[in-house]
Amino acid sequence: MIYLVCSPNEVSGAATVSPLRKGNRDLIKEINRNLALNLIKSRGPISRSEIARLSGLSPATVSGITADFIASGLIEETAEGESTGGRPPVLLRLNPQAGFVVGVKLMEQAVISALTDLDAQVLHQHVTPLTVDDGRRSKASMDDGRVNPESILPVIIRAIEETIAESRVERRRLLGLGVGLAGLVDGEAGICRYSPFFGWRDVALAEPIAEHFDLPVYLENDVNTLTIAEQWFGYGHGVDHFVVITVGRGIGAGIVANGQFYRGALGGAGEVGHMTVQEDGPICHCGKRGCLEALASDPAVVREAQAAIARKEPTTLAQSETLTLEAIVAAAEAGDDLARRLLADAGHWLGIGIAALVNILNPQLIIVGGEGVHAGQWRIGPMRQAVRAHAFNGLADQLDMVIEPS
Ligand SMILES: [Zn+2]
């Protein structure tokens, strides 16, 4: 695995350096520090020699960097690792109490915020309902029905303020804020390029929040944030090739390849919900036809149930006052054939989509999460079958699949 982007030899440059050269040296030092810190975060507890091996940095450089980190309290030494002959190595890990962060998930109907330590332990969680539908009919809505970001930003800021206040963590101990939302997100620029739920195009979300709190704010697609969390703290920890798929109102994926999180050219890698799986299939909310999301998401199951009821197919669902995925799952569990068939169809299509990912990326691990996972065996069983049936020979044999309800 190659993490190295600059030769560490360049760090020990000539005795006299031009201002430009000095700038390069500082940049390289910063890159090397980030390399080491990322390895400690994603691979820790980890020995200094392993950091040197994986990063390509010299042992002396790693020793200097980690000494700085320990002095500043950012990392700490833990129990000794296994010896491979000589003295057992001391392992390093992030100091969970070195600082705190607030993470925000911006959903269609709620802002969920949580204050955590650096080990992702949630110290306090806060849910703020978001009445976007009301907003669409009120001044929060723009002329074309899009939700005005000006109406959402104060809600996000208030949610973060309340989370910090209720957690009783001192504000000066906060290191940064993170905001995740569905859609196409330019994380580097802090701009939401496209939000399907809010109808946004090119909305700068990070900057106003950063200005308010005087803290760095990281904006990212919500499935990508989940994938990074899995890589740092979850099932993906130490796994070089894995994919996270979320199923619920939509379908999305986050990709880790060669140990690196993969964003794609515009940050849109993993929009698997909109890969065409049935050319003449149902219309998707993105405007195209036959997307995976239009066949395998929760709303797709509900839509098919409504259509079946309209066709007078025999089902207990016809008596349901409000047709929801929960009602369909309950009917399936009570023995309703239509409910079982619809969930199985959705699971089958999801498996087709996952098999395509397996064939392209050859991951070791697939983590399936999201609200849709609650549909349980009726959906997941057919999903597994379809993955086995459609993945290229041998690729599914070594594949681990983890189902992780949100
Ligand atoms: Zn679509």
Walk me through this protein's architecture.
This protein has twelve helices and 16 strands. β4 and β5 form a beta hairpin. With 406 residues, the chain is α/β, with parallel strands linked by helices. The radius of gyration is 24 Å and the shape is globular. The chain is 39% helix and 22% strand. The protein has a five-stranded mixed beta sheet with strand order 6-5-4-7-11. The chain has a five-stranded mixed beta sheet with strand order 14-13-12-15-16, with helices on both faces. Strands 1-3-2 form a three-stranded antiparallel beta sheet. It has three domains: 8-97, Arc Repressor Mutant, subunit A (Orthogonal Bundle), CATH 1.10.10; 99-229, ATPase, nucleotide binding domain (Nucleotidyltransferase, domain 5, 2-Layer Sandwich), CATH 3.30.420; 234-405, Nucleotidyltransferase, domain 5, CATH 3.30.420.40. The protein has helices at residues 19-43, 48-55, 59-71, 132-137, 149-167, 206-213, 222-233, 292-296, 298-310, 325-333, 337-361, 377-390; strands at 46-47, 75-80, 90-94, 100-106, 110-117, 122-129, 174-181, 184-186, 191-195, 200-204, 217-221, 242-247, 251-257, 260-262, 365-370, 400-405. Bound molecules: zinc ion. Residues 274, 284, 286, 288, 291, 293 line the site of zinc ion.
